[in-house]
Amino acid sequence: MTDVIDGDAVAADVREGLADAIGTLDDAGVTPTLATVLMSDDPASETYVSMKQQDCAEVGIEARDVELDPEAPAEELFETVADLNADPAVNGILVQMPVPDHVEDRDVIRAIDPAKDVDGFHPENVGRLVAGDPVFKPCTPHGVLKLLDAAGVETEGADVTIVGRSNIVGKPLANLLLQKADDGNATVTVCHSRTEDVSEKTRRADVVIAAAGVPELVDGSMLTDGTVVIDVGVNRVERDGESTLVGDVDFESAKSKARAITPVPGGVGPMTRAMLLYNTVKATSRQAE
Ligand code: GUN
C-alpha cells in the first residue's frame, strides 16, 4: 500500500507546535507580526497572500497587509520595505513574488532586513544556509524536510534526486539535504532543463522531489518500485474544459510505483504556509532576545 502523505495533518502539527512559543511571547507583551507586501493584481498572488494572512490570524500572529499599485514606481516598494525594516513592531516581511517587471526581484530581496527575512531569500540568509548555519530555512524546502521526517523517511545515506534548480526550492533543498545534520546527509542529484537523462537519475533515487514547475513531468515510468515521491508543483491546467490543479508528478502512475507520495493539493502546499508561520515566530523570538 502506498502511503499518501497528508500535508494538511503535518502542517496542523507544526502550527500546534508554535503555540508554546507564541504564548511565551504573549506573556512578554509581544505579538508576532508579519507584514505582507503585494504589488500585483495577479489573482493567484492575491489568493496566496490572503491565505497567508488567514493562517496568521489562526495561530495568533498579527498580519499587516500592504498593497501597492503594480504600476507604482519601484521607489515606492523600496520605501515601503525600508519603513517596515525600521518598524520595531514588524517582525517578518514577505514581499510576494513575482513583483512587476520594472522592479528587480533581487533588489527587493536585498532590501529586506535579513533579521526579518522570513522567506530566507536574502543573500545573507542564503549564504548562512549554504555554510551549514541557517537562520531562516526557506519555507518550501523546510516543509519538504518536515514531511519526509513525518513520513518516517530517512535521508541519511539516501540517494535523493531533485528535479528543478530554482532559488526558492531546488537549490536550498539540495543544500539542506547535503548538510551533515539530522535532516541531511543525503547524496543529492539536481536535474534541470539541460539534464541529458532525467529518468536515469530519478530511477536510481530513493527519494524523488519534483520542483520544476512543469505539469506532470515525473510519471511512474521514471520511478523504481518503492521510491518516495514529493511533489512541489502547483500548476493550473485545463482538463475536459475545466481548470484544475496538478503537480509536477503524474499522481496515479507515480503512486503505482511509490512507497509514499504527496498529493496536490494537500501535500507540500500546506507545509510551505506552516513554515512561514514558524519563521515568523522564530524571527520574533530572536528580535525579543
Ligand atoms: N511567490 C511564490 N512563492 C513565494 C514565496 O515562497 N515567497 C514569496 N515572497 N513569494 C512567493
From TrEMBL:
One biological process GO term for this chain? methionine biosynthetic process
Superkingdom in the source lineage: Archaea
GO annotations of cellular component type: cytosol
Q: Which InterPro entries match?
A: Aminoacid_DH-like_N_sf, NAD(P)-bd_dom_sf, THF_DH/CycHdrlase, THF_DH/CycHdrlase_cat_dom, THF_DH/CycHdrlase_NAD-bd_dom
Provenance organism: Haloplanus rallus
Segments traversing the membrane: none
Q: How does it assemble?
A: Homodimer.
- Recorded protein name is Bifunctional protein FolD
For this UniProt entry, the molecular function terms from Gene Ontology, in alphabetical order, are: methenyltetrahydrofolate cyclohydrolase activity; methylenetetrahydrofolate dehydrogenase (NADP+) activity
Q: Which SUPFAM superfamilies match?
A: Aminoacid dehydrogenase-like, N-terminal domain, NAD(P)-binding Rossmann-fold domains
Q: Known EC number(s)?
A: 1.5.1.5, 3.5.4.9
Q: Which residues form the Tetrahydrofolate dehydrogenase/cyclohydrolase NAD(P)-binding domain?
A: 138-287
Reaction(s) catalysed (UniProt annotation): (6R)-5,10-methylene-5,6,7,8-tetrahydrofolate + NADP(+) = (6R)-5,10-methenyltetrahydrofolate + NADPH; (6R)-5,10-methenyltetrahydrofolate + H2O = (6R)-10-formyltetrahydrofolate + H(+)
The record lists NADP(+) as bound by 164-166, 234
Family membership noted in the UniProt record: Belongs to the tetrahydrofolate dehydrogenase/cyclohydrolase family.
The protein's role, per its UniProt record: Catalyzes the oxidation of 5,10-methylenetetrahydrofolate to 5,10-methenyltetrahydrofolate and then the hydrolysis of 5,10-methenyltetrahydrofolate to 10-formyltetrahydrofolate.
